[in-house]
Amino acid sequence: MAASAVTWAGLASIGRACGHIRSRLLGSSSTLSQVSCLHTSPELNCKHWERKNLTVYPPQNKDEPRRPAEIHHCRRQIKYSKDKMWYLAKLLRGMTIDQALTQLEFNDKKGAKIIKEVILEAQDMAVKNHNVEYKSNLYIAESFSGKGKYLKHIRYHGRGMCGIMDKVHCHYFVKLVEGVPPIVEQKTGFDQAKEYVEQLRNRTIIHSL
Amino acid sequence: MATSICRTLKYFQPITCQNIKCAASLLDVRLVPVLVPIRTKKRFFIPPAVNVKDKTQAEQEVKARAAGMVVRQQYTERPINISCTAGIFDPYVPPEGDARLSTLSKEGLKQRTEQLRQSAASQLSIRKIKDHDPDFSSKAFPELAQQIFVDAHAALTQFNKEKLHSLVTERCYPEMVRGNRYKTLRWGFIESLEPPRVVHTRCPDMISKGNLYGQVTVRMHSRQTLAVYDRFGRLMMGDEDEPRDVLEYLVLERHLVNPYGCWRLHGKIVPAWAPPKDPVVKTVMIPGPMLKPGDEFETLNYQVPKPKAVQWYK
């Protein structure tokens, strides 16, 4: 009887163990993607965003630099447009978490309130579950929105014509990384023009005198 | 776009049949319901109801029940484990200063003689255990107990669930495993400083008389290393290269009445006088007191509440 009581739990735990093994393999492949800087589009990232929190890295040696903690969080089926959400997601990319929260608090959009809740949840998760020491020491590495499942209604036009009205929903994904945000070099137009002119000057003319 | 089809039951209408031969079969068919497809739109996503008059769950339930919706009887069942007990019965209270005094001093000798004379209840329960398990001997058991301990912790580091379940009872398993799912543990048993010995036994019977479980407490003094790494491979606690002397009181249990039962680790007793553990490698925020509008935290002289020194069981 004790054995039968354990079976379902055992099956579920075996399933989780398979996920555990798979996530260990996923962990190694994700380091590869960091090294080769693969570009993964949002459609490929969306489905398994929650699973990215389950990767386990092997213990580091004492001489290696400390690996920064990464926390993935998302919210699904938000009643908002993905295009309108994109503006907020683009605003927050690369900001520290405190800066992001202040910007969202004073932003008038509907999505700002929702994103603020998501980021606060992620910060809480980071401190409690993912061994992050200081809750302000996080920055937003990735933030993007994706299309959710739409409901369809009929929109009545004049002259007996009709169209399909989509009730739009979106997903919002955020990845918090521990540490100071990387400084992105701001390139002015003048720098880009200078580079272009240098490229032109470095050309060699072959088969000439 | 293909629309999905719902199927409903529909009885055949009585059809004027030209073929009299199959009249009998038709009659039979009329009694049997046949599935006929009816076209509806497949809903992938049903949105939550907005602007509903009765917002509370109770009011909605009342309305649904009045309309005729019947909710199936809900069985609130919890799985019960009969292969192990839920705790440590009549626990052993380790004497203060155990393993601090050397055996050669006067106080040490006194302690040793007290310990050697085990209490009557322990002797009685050893006799009861020997009735059910003739192979049990209080001389050979501690070695077995230490072996079970080492194997269980090795299985924990590798997270070999099946082996762990066979070495550790169901009560002890969640306490060993909780929070360790996404962490890496590195544990090493270096050597045993003193030979382990049985200090305490009890034979509680659960629910019905005769349903005996044997609980044996073994005292173990050994040298071990432990290092806990978090999800990202960073050291959370401990040190892999620094061995520590550990004095532990292990409780092993066996369902004596079950002929296929085996001795498994049931828990640990942490005495009240145990030294405090090392702090974790990170800074932790402790929630402070609620401040009134005029107060300042520095002037309050807030003392962080220290936990009481009580014996507890792992």
From TrEMBL, chain A:
Q: What biological-process GO terms show up in the record? A: translation
Task: Kindly indicate where the leader peptide sits in this chain.
Answer: none
- GO CC entries: mitochondrial large ribosomal subunit
Has keyword Ribonucleoprotein?
yes
GO MF assignments? structural constituent of ribosome
Main location, first listed in the record: mitochondrion
InterPro entries linked: Ribosomal_uL22, Ribosomal_uL22_bac/org-type, Ribosomal_uL22_sf
Which compartment or compartments is the protein found in? Answer: Mitochondrion
Q: Which keywords describe this protein according to UniProt?
A: Mitochondrion, Ribonucleoprotein, Ribosomal protein, Transit peptide
CDD domains referenced in this protein's UniProt entry, alphabetically: Ribosomal_L22
The name this protein goes by in its record: Large ribosomal subunit protein uL22m
Species: Phoxinus phoxinus
TrEMBL record, chain B:
Q: Which domain of life is it from?
A: Eukaryota
Q: Which SMART domains does the entry mention? A: Tim44
Where is it mainly found? mitochondrion
Q: Which Gene3D superfamilies match?
A: 3.10.450.240
Domain Tim44-like, residue spans: 122-270
Q: Sorted alphabetically, which InterPro entries does this protein's record hold?
A: mtLSU_mL45, NTF2-like_dom_sf, Tim44-like_dom
Entry's localization field: Mitochondrion
Q: Which residues cross the membrane?
A: none
Q: Does the keyword Transit peptide apply?
A: yes
Question: What SUPFAM superfamilies does the annotation carry?
Answer: NTF2-like
Q: Which GO terms describe its cellular component?
A: mitochondrion; ribonucleoprotein complex; ribosome
Which keywords annotate this record? Mitochondrion, Ribonucleoprotein, Ribosomal protein, Transit peptide
Q: Which family does it belong to?
A: Belongs to the mitochondrion-specific ribosomal protein mL45 family.
So what does this one do? Component of the mitochondrial large ribosomal subunit (mt-LSU). Within the mitochondrial ribosomes, required to direct the nascent polypeptide toward the tunnel exit and position the exit at a distance from the membrane surface.
Q: What's the protein name?
A: Large ribosomal subunit protein mL45
